[in-house]
Amino acid sequence: MIEELVRWTGILAGGLWVTLQLVALAGVITVVLAVGIAIMSISQRALVRMVAQVYVDVFRSIPLLALLIFLYYVLGRYVAAIGLSAFALAAIGLALNEAAYVAEVYRAGLKSIPEQQWEAGASLGLGWGGVLRLIILPQALPPAIPVTLNMLIGLIKNSALASLIAVDEVSMKATILVSETFLPLEVFLLLAVMYLAIIIPLTMVTGRAEALVARRLGLAGPLRPEASRPAAAQREA
Amino acid sequence: MDIVLILLEGAVVTLKIAVGSWILSIVLGLLLGAIHDLGSGVARGIVHAVVTVLRSMPQLVVLYLLYFGIGAFGLNVPPTIAAVLALGVTDAAFTSEYYRAALMTVSPSQREAGASIGLSPFGVFRRVVLPQALPFAVPPILNSFISLLKVATLAAAVGSPEILYRAQSLMQVTGEITIVITIVIALYIGITVPLSRAVGVLERRIGASSRST
Q1: Which residues of A touch B153 (CB under 8 A)?
Q2: Of A17, A34, B183, B212, whose CB is crowded by the most CB atoms within 10 A?
Q3: Is residue A235 included in any domain, yes or no?
Q4: Nearest-CA residue of chain B relative to A189?
Q5: What is the mean pLDDT of chain A?
Q6: pLDDT tens digits along B23-35
Q7: Quick check: A83 pLDDT over 90?
Q8: What are phi and psi of A80, to 5 degrees?
């Protein structure tokens, strides 16, 4: 029995490695997309803001599984020729979905920087892009760290769906193992333990990062009255 | 036209899964939230552990455990029921956090006032704290219904005849891959966007009314 368990763990660990690669690729695409959409959503042009809003609305409405099936069966027929695998399509699908949520949080981060900072930057002669790059983004970056870690947790959980479009990540490996051993309870419990072993430590790190960022921003309190007020108001309410 | 009808039949099953798991999540979440609020240190610890584990599990894995895992004991759980249970239980972990956050909005002096007029701890919870806290839990709980409406499509993975399952078999039978999946996606956008907007409006109303009092 122990030997069996070791064998299973080996097989699933191989799948877990694929899961992590999938999450890494999806994570990079998500951050790029989400930053782009967040910046678009604070643009001065109404049309650009609207495009960002439509993206968020649409991709928050589509079930991830439906999106993956769309990409795999519809887009997959055309892009197989240029070498996009199920793995790449899954990463794109996970990212398109996740970015819709992360962009909103990034946007809130950008919005939390007081309006006067934009004015101050403009008075120094900086353009909109210059203020964004040199003044706003550097300040918005630290609070974005815990959000981004949270995104990774979401991606790891969601990545299980990639098994349904033939990506041989850990859940797929588990279903194959079940069809071979006919021991679904045991195999899926092991699968659950493997997910927990990754996600729970990551949750703890995220909690730490959140506390750290809150403390740092708390110390900078007098400089950021707008940022600290809503939090206090919530606690009073 | 047949395609649309078959998909709508599937949508009804999807809706049932979403409603079923939502109710389960609301009830179980409140139970977890109440235990956390009223219970001893040990009870809190257990609730915290349960919530942490449930929040960390991919719903698909919980669904597999309930459907195939329990099936291994010879108990035949229908796929749709398994989906309701799996999605309801995992969502309850999140709902309990919404209740917890809502309960924290009630000032401790309210509890003291309740105790001082002779109410038991449960009486204080039920008659003083919960009625004041509930409005704050409403918007996130409504949002979780929208989320369940989407997550209900996971039931396709265990063969429940919901919308995505029907879509996949239609894709195989008719070969109209693009049309079928596009209808599903359009249906979801058409339903979810207005729903989310409505919840957003409600959220601002509740926020505004609580600030004015």
Answers
A1: 63, 65-66
A2: A34
A3: no
A4: B65
A5: 88
A6: 999 999 999 999 9
A7: no
A8: -60, -35
Instruction: List C-alpha distances in Å: B98 to A20, A31, A50, B53, B213.
Output: 30, 27, 30, 17, 22
Place of tokens 């078999």: B169
Residue A33 lies in a domain: yes
CA–CA gap between residue B52 and residue B12 (Å, rounded): 32
Among candidates A60, A62, A164 on the partner chain, residue whose Cβ is nearest the Cβ of B157: A164
Please give the model's pTM, rounded to 2 decimal places. 0.89
- B182 confidence band (pLDDT: 50, 70, 90): very high
The CATH code of the domain that includes B132 is 1.10.3720.10
Total count of residues recorded for chain B: 213
| CB proximity B209 to A under 8 Å | no
Residue A127 phi, psi (nearest 5): -80, 180
Instruction: Provide the domain count of chain B.
Output: 1
* A228: in domain: no
- Inter-CA distances, B138 with B102, B141, B180, B205, Å: 9, 5, 35, 12
Q: Which of A66, A188, A195 comes nearest B56 by C-beta?
A: A195
**Burial environment of residue A10 by CB neighbours within 10 A (0 to 12, 13 to 18, 19 or more):** exposed
Q: Which of A61, A64, A152, A179 to mutate to test the interface with B (most CBs of B within 10 A)?
A: A61
* CATH classification of the domain holding A10: 1.10.3720.10
Q: What ipTM, to 2 d.p.?
A: 0.91
- Minimal Cβ distance to A70: which of B58, B105, B185: B185
Q: Which structural domain, as residue segments, surrounds residue A32?
A: 2-221
Give Cβ neighbours of residue A202 (< 8 Å, ≥ 6 apart): A149, A152, A153, A156
State the residue range of the domain holding B199.
Answer: 2-212
Angle at B51 between CA B50 and CA B54, to 5 degrees: 85
pLDDT at B55 over 60: yes
Amino acid at B21: S
> Residues 97..126 of B with a Cβ closer than 8 Å to A: which?
105
SS3 A63: coil
Return all residues near B54 (Cβ < 8 A) that are at least 6 apart: B62, B89, B90, B92, B93
